[in-house]
Amino acid sequence: MAILRKINHILLLLLLLTICGIWYSTIYKVPAIPKDEDLPAGIEEEEEDVIPVLICAPPGRMGGTVAAINSIYSNTNANVLFYIIGLRNSLVHIKKWIQGTRLSDIRFKIIEFNPAVLKGKLRPDTAFPELLQPLNFVRFYLPLLIQEHEKVIYLDDDIIVLGDIQELYNTNISPGHVAAFSDDCDLPSIQDIAMKIGIQNTFMGFLDYRKKTIQKMGISPNTCSFNPGVFVANLTEWRQQQITKKLEKWMKKNVEENLYSSNVGGGVATPPMLIVFHDKYSSISPNWHIRHLGWSPDDHISQSVLKDAKLLHWNGRYKPWQISSSHGKLWQKWFIPDPTGKFQIRVT
């Protein structure tokens, strides 16, 4: 009898455990790991050979985004994954543009950027209102937008890539450095253009050294600046060094003290990056960022420079899709017309 009672107790215990197991799995059901083909849109497993490229698609500038993507895709055999960042009212437009053209074969994710994250961090700037557009600050929040990759390429929308993007991705980032930028003192030919047009290429052109907060940093005003329109970032190092938090700190300081927005450099995106990344960045090969195009309609880059150029950047106010600008035909080669008809090139 004692043996039967023990057996009954065991059977009862097993029954109770089974019932509890069913209840637990119902309440806290863990879904099965999907196969690759079952992955929902926007969710992908990390791949070792993928090259993540982040580029924004601002309203009114999407033609630049599309031309940049087309130039990258057409000049590489690498496994590129495009992260296209936009505002809510423009996401459907850029998706239709890509899917309705020959770019339908690219791999891409479209991500919405919420401007609310910038509340209280921007000081009004009537001299350069276009530089206060929310997507100008996407580069501050890379680790929040891309979490699957350690290394990522950030590109402005007014660029054309003529080389293999794999080469840019392979840029060496030294230990302890967060990113690799183009130093504004790299190519003599670029410096000549800057001097001719009057472009600032030192910290003095971006920061107000009359302010004690700037003076206390101990950075010489003659320190060479860098251009944050093209860079390669180590997101692991970015997180560890809390770069986003530091960038936001200097944005708020500018709101309180007007540290740089009224200076020659203009805008509020480049100065905090100059401060935070000072002594924390490596260098991109000069040919991978030939800039200062579009500063006037008739300024030209020499053929010797263009011959070796891997990337062209129209970072001046004369964009190749808006108005006649230097070397506009080089850009138009990569432009794909908008199938919806909303975006039109307005070159005069």
From TrEMBL:
Top-rank taxon, per record: Eukaryota
Keywords per UniProt: Glycosyltransferase, Transferase
Sample GO molecular function, one term: UDP-glycosyltransferase activity
InterPro entries xrefs: Glyco_trans_8, Glycosyltrans_8_dom-fam, Nucleotide-diphossugar_trans
Transferase in keyword set: yes
Signal sequence, start to end: none
GO cellular component: Golgi apparatus
Family per record: Belongs to the glycosyltransferase 8 family.
Name of the protein in question: Glycosyltransferase 8 domain-containing protein 2
Organism: Pyxicephalus adspersus
Organism phylogeny: Eukaryota, Metazoa, Chordata, Craniata, Vertebrata
